[in-house]
Amino acid sequence: MPALDRHAEYLPDRPMVGYGMEQPDPQWPNGAKIAISFVINWEEGGERNILEGDSGSETFIIEHLSKPSIIGGRDHMTESQFEYGPRAGLPRLMRLFKK
Fold first, then answer.
1. Angstrom distance (rounded) from CA 65 to CA 71
2. Percent helix, strand and coil across the chain, each rounded to 5?
3. pTM
4. H or E stretch including 82?
5. What percent of the chain has pLDDT over 90?
6. What is the Cα–Cα distance from 62 to 47, expressed in whole angstroms?
7. Do residues 74 and 83 touch, judged by C-beta distance below 8 A?
8. CB–CB of 72/56 below 8 Å?
9. What is the mean pLDDT of the chain?
10. pLDDT tens readout for residues 20-59
């Protein structure tokens, strides 16, 4: 039994076959030859923080792994790492996309 047949009920009702050498013409607007897709991965908000009711600061998903958790206190360096995306990173990207 092929591996995918065991899970057929979860697969889409369409053949997963490529076009090979017979690629369709997507007819992009204004004669464009390429389309670019940007995917922004935003993971802030999952870190431990006493402001959110946790017992201490984050220790596992940070850049400096050897730093112990600050129990009952805030770790401003770690908070600033997670704050950059929503505070400065995303607005910066959005300004670039508008150009």
1. 16
2. 35, 0, 60
3. 0.49
4. helix 76-84
5. 9
6. 9
7. no
8. yes
9. 81
10. 888 888 888 898 888 888 888 777 767 888 888 999 888 8
